[in-house]
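User: For my dataset I need records formatted as: sequence, then C-alpha cells, nothing else. Please produce one.
Assistant:
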Amino acid sequence: MATEPGAESRADRKERTRRAILDAALALAADSSLVAVSLRQVARQVGVVPTAFYRHFGSLEALGLALVDESFRSLRSMLLDVWRHAPEYRDFIDGSLPIVAQHVRDDRAHYAFIARERVAGPPRVRQAIRHEIELITRELSTDIARSGAAGQYSSADIRLLADLVVSFVVTTAERLVEDPAAEARTLDEARTQLRMLLVGAVNWRSRED
C-alpha cells in the first residue's frame, strides 16, 4: 500500500526521535557532563517513555559514543577545511583562524561537547575522544607528508608537527566555546601563538638517525 502524500514513514519517525534524543542529551549535559545525565531525564526531555530510548541506544554510554562520532565529523570537517585553504606555512596563520571561528559559531554545541567530555565524560567516551584525535593526527601527518610542506622533517617529526597543529586547533576551539564574547581577543592571541609555533616549524631540521 502506497504511503499517503505528506505522511511520515516509520523510518522518518524513528530518525526524528533519534535526533531528538541526541539533541536532548547535548542540551542536558551542557552545564555539567554526560555523567550527570540520566536516561529518564533524556526520555522526559524528548517526551518518550524510557523503554523507547532503548530502541535507539543500548545505554547512555552508547548515546555518548554516538555524540562523539557526530561531533568529530564536525571537527574533522573543520581541520580538512583549514588544511585545504592553507596548505603552506605562510598561508596557515591568516587562513586557519577565521575558519576555526566560523565552524565553532556554526556548531557550538558539538565543540562544547568535545571540550567538556574529553576531561569530564564517562571513561569510554573520554577514550573515544582520545582515539578520534589520534586518528585526525594520523590523517594530518599523511597530508603533510604528501604535500611536501615539511620536506626537512623525519616521519616521526611530521607526526609531532601534526600533533601540535591538531592540539592547537582543539585548544583554540575550546577557548572560543568557553568565552564567545572574547572571540576577537582569543583569535588575536591564537594568531601570535601560531606565529611562534610556525617560526619554529619552518626552521626545524630533523636530525639524521
